[in-house]
């Protein structure tokens, strides 16, 4: 079969990938004989399991050296599940040898030091083997395992692996640093499964932050073949379930699985789809233990989840993230868990006694450093009194105020977190910008300038590489979209008559004046404005229903497919995106709903947009809403109503089922639309942090509270026109609250939504979306 020129790039990429696998593929070993050895080198010298799914050998860790490890060998990430020398990488040319007396020796070529990785000398070891379970073993002639990597885990356990009493997992120091980090978990000798912080850099346990309460009965932690993880008693009865695989949502036969204590102290079971072209291949997280480490870690000694003076914020999309309070920056930008330091000179006692205005207090709401010692406490006092007391006290770095109570603390501060459920107000002492006591001097200036120049060079190089990769991704995406359009056109004659025009590159270059008038850009492409000299003006004939709803989707006029030039030509939306004109015509919301209804029910094949947000809704010259940007869209087969795929969309608009590895339906678009509808009603973003006080505002929570307390006027922010028709506002809010229910089955269809907005159906009272 001959390939057309347009397929050459994709074919080349696939060929290169296959070549890279073939050049790295080792001999398949069942038994590794005594005397065998591996050398640390760039082509990943390793021994593979019979199926090739796991490998044992050397992995190059950047420029730091080589790690002797076990990893998933059939996925591009080569995810490591066990390592022997995380604390001490070896250099190129180092070896690992299965000696004649049954030892596994790692020899560092730089120092000549011999490190015993596994030793069963004198027990009759005849060979080693890398098993398909991910377990590396030393065995005798009867294939009885005398040493197993499963019995000496590092940070990960795999299906069929168990943790007995006394077993420990250590979190790695960082994502690509496999030395022992700041957290561990263990099944204690008393049977309790406990997570600890460590006395880092020592690896002894410090303070526990999560446990199963199975002391006296816990015997093993089992990761079974079905993907469930649980604590059992000695008689096999299940005492505590950490992760239960939903076999209706995920077929374990089609997924690789692991469970890892990550560098941030969170224990996460992961799944990764095996070879299946219909599913995006990436590790997905099913469960977080603990669910919120920011509020779980309460060390008496130690910096907490993020280090001294830092703040931990838990995010449903990204998990825990570390940040510095205002006026502070990270001690080490490459290791955020080291905490934060002041970027100004602290207040001297002389400055405090003079009661000058060299310092002020920056207010941060819902912020606390939980167990940091309070050296002074006052009650009852006013907030102003608390502020003045801290400003006049050279030992006071941060004051906390709530309900007529004032605490004063000094740095270093530990266990910092931002928690929306907290009503604490932190008052952070900051030196004024015009103060002469800021860090200055010729040496520091040179150092700062050098750092800025270096950062600038790194940014320039990384930006250039990023833009190059984006260009490649854009070309591939445009080709994919065009190919899908062509394929759908052949399969579904009901959209016959769209009459896409094939433009030449020179036509479009001339029309856009050399691509000078940029309208915007996204993750995959840049948008330019242009004027075409000639284009067919005949309007395609469509069924009446399609005409009514298709008008709310942006019109594709044509394309260009000349070598590397792959361009889509859309009609110009003269009024830009909904993001820039979010709160104008009330018909906008109904137009978006009709557009989604067309995608979900009236197209020849059901389409899930997967990224409904203001930036992807364009407005024409009559302010008619047009849904755009189908780069993340999912086209379902004629016999499909759901699919499983990796998370798609934009933070704040993503439905909760994405994070639970559940099948995805059109209801994810309904959820995103509900968030968007609240933004249109309330004239503000779905998530905001006020610049003045760091106060978080979650729009969905606020909207429900206002609705439930009959205070909808608070949502309108002085909109007199909306206030005059508060009943219509209430119906819109009720519609939005139904759309954002946690349970997808409770959400209405887009047909129901359009009828709610049109007023043709009654809307029942919506439950609290947070608890549905």
Would you give an account of this structure?
Keywords: ATP-binding, Disulfide bond, EGF-like domain, Glycoprotein, Kinase, Membrane, Nucleotide-binding, Receptor, Serine/threonine-protein kinase, Signal, Transferase, Transmembrane, Transmembrane helix. It is a single-pass membrane protein. The structure is a single chain. The protein folds into five domains: 24-149, Agglutinin, subunit A (Orthogonal Prism); 153-291, Agglutinin, subunit A (Orthogonal Prism); 303-430, no CATH class; 443-570, Phosphorylase Kinase, domain 1 (2-Layer Sandwich), CATH 3.30.200; 578-771, Orthogonal Bundle (Transferase(Phosphotransferase), domain 1), CATH 1.10.510. Helix 8 (587-602) runs antiparallel to helix 9 (667-682). The chain has 772 residues and is α+β, with helices and mostly antiparallel strands.
Break the fold down into its secondary structure elements and pairings.
Elements lengths: L7 H17 L7 E2 L3 E3 L6 E3 L5 E8 L3 E8 L7 E4 L11 E4 L4 E5 L6 E6 L7 E4 L5 E4 L5 E4 L7 E2 L4 E3 L3 E7 L2 E11 L5 E6 L6 E7 L8 E4 L5 E4 L5 E6 L11 E7 L5 E7 L10 E2 L7 H4 L14 E5 L3 E5 L4 E3 L9 E3 L6 H6 L4 E7 L1 E3 L6 E3 L4 H9 L6 E5 L2 E5 L6 E3 L6 E7 L10 H50 L9 E2 L2 H7 L6 E4 L4 E3 L15 H7 L5 E7 L2 E6 L16 H16 L4 E2 L8 E3 L5 E3 L6 E2 L31 H16 L4 E3 L6 E3 H10 L4 H4 L3 H4 L2 H14 L10 H9 L14
Parallel strand pairs: 25-34, 36-39
Antiparallel strand pairs: 1-10, 2-7, 3-4, 4-5, 5-6, 7-8, 8-9, 10-11, 11-12, 13-22, 14-19, 15-16, 16-17, 17-18, 19-20, 20-21, 22-23, 23-24, 25-26, 27-28, 29-35, 30-34, 31-33, 32-33, 32-35, 37-38, 39-40, 41-44, 42-43, 45-46
Helix pairs in contact: 7-8, 8-9, 8-14, 9-13, 10-13
């Amino acid at each position: 079969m001959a390939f057309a020129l347009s397929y050459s790039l994709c074919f080349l990429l696939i060929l290169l990938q296959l070549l890279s696998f073939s050049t790295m593929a080792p001999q398949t070993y069942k038994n590794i004989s005594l005397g065998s050895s591996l050398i640390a080198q760039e082509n990943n010298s390793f021994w593979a399991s019979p199926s090739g799914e796991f490998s044992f050998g050397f992995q190059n860790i950047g420029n730091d050296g080589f790690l002797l490890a076990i990893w998933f060998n059939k996925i591009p990430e080569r995810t490591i599940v066990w390592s022997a020398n995380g604390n001490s990488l070896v250099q190129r040319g180092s070896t690992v040898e299965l000696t004649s007396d049954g030892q596994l020796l790692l020899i560092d070529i730089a120092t000549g030091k011999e490190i015993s990785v596994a030793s069963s000398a004198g027990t009759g070891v005849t060979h080693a083997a890398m098993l398909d379970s991910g377990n590396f073993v030393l065995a005798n002639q009867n294939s009885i395992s005398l040493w197993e990597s499963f019995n000496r885990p590092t940070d990960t356990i795999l299906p069929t692996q168990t943790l007995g009493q006394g077993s420990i997992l250590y979190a790695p120091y960082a994502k690509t640093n496999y030395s022992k980090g700041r957290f561990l978990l263990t099944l204690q000798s008393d049977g309790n499964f406990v997570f600890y912080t460590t006395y880092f850099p020592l690896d002894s346990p410090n303070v526990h932050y999560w446990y199963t309460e199975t002391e006296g009965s816990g015997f093993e932690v089992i990761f079974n073949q079905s993907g469930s993880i649980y604590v059992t008693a000695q008689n096999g009865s299940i005492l505590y379930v950490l992760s239960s695989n939903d076999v209706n949502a995920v077929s374990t036969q089609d997924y690789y699985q692991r469970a890892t204590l990550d560098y941030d102290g969170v224990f996460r079971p992961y799944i990764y789809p095996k070879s299946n072209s219909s599913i995006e291949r990436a590790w997905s997280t099913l469960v977080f233990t603990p669910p919120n480490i920011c509020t779980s870690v309460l060390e008496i000694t130690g910096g907490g989840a993020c280090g001294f003076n830092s703040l931990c914020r838990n995010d449903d999309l990204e998990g825990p993230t570390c940040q510095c309070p205002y006026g502070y920056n990270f001690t080490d930008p490459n290791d955020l868990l080291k905490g934060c330091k002041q970027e100004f000179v602290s207040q001297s006692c002389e400055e405090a006694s003079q009661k000058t205005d060299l310092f002020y207090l920056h207010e941060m709401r819902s912020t606390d450093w939980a167990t940091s010692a309070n050296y002074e406490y006052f009650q009852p006092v006013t907030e102003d009194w608390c502020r003045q007391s801290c400003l006049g006290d050279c030992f006071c770095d941060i004051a906390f105020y709530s309900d007529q109570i004032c605490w004063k603390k000094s740095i270093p501060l530990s266990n910092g977190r931002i928690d929306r459920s907290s009503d604490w107000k932190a008052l952070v002492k900051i030196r004024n910008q015009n103060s002469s006591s800021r860090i200055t001097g010729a040496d520091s200036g040179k150092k700062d300038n050098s750092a800025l120049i270096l950062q600038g060079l790194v940014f320039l190089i990384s930006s250039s590489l990023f833009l190059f990769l984006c260009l490649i991704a854009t070309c591939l995406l445009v080709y994919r979209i065009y190919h899908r359009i062509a394929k759908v056109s052949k399969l579904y004659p009901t959209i016959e008559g769209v009459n896409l025009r094939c433009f030449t590159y020179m036509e479009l270059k001339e029309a856009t004046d050399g691509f000078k008038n940029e309208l915007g850009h996204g993750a995959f492409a840049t948008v330019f404005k242009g004027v075409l000299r000639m284009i067919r003006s005949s309007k395609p004939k469509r069924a009446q229903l399609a005409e009514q709803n298709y008008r709310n989707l942006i019109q594709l006029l044509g394309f260009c497919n000349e070598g590397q030039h792959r361009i889509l030509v859309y009609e110009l939306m003269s009024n830009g995106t909904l993001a820039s004109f979010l709160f104008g015509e009330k018909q906008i919301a109904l137009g978006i709903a009709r557009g989604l209804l067309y995608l979900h029910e009236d197209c020849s094949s059901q389409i899930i947009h997967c990224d409904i947000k203001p930036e992807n809704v364009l407005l024409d010259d009559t302010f008619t809403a047009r849904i755009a940007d189908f780069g993340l869209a999912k086209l379902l087969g004629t016999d499909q109503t759901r699919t499983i795929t990796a998370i798609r969309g934009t933070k704040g608009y993503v439905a909760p089922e994405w994070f639970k590895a559940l099948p995805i339906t059109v209801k994810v678009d309904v959820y995103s639309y509900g968030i968007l509808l609240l933004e249109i009603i309330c004239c503000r973003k779905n998530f905001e942090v006020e610049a003045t006080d760091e106060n978080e505002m979650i729009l969905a929570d606020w909207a429900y509270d206002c609705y439930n307390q009959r205070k909808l006027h608070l949502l309108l922010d002085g909109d007199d026109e909306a206030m005059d028709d508060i009943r219509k506002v209430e119906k819109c809010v009720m519609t939005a609250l139904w759309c954002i229910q946690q349970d997808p089955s409770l959400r209405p269809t887009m047909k129901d939504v359009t009828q709610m907005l049109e007023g043709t159906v009654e809307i029942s009272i919506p439950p609290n979306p947070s608890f549905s």
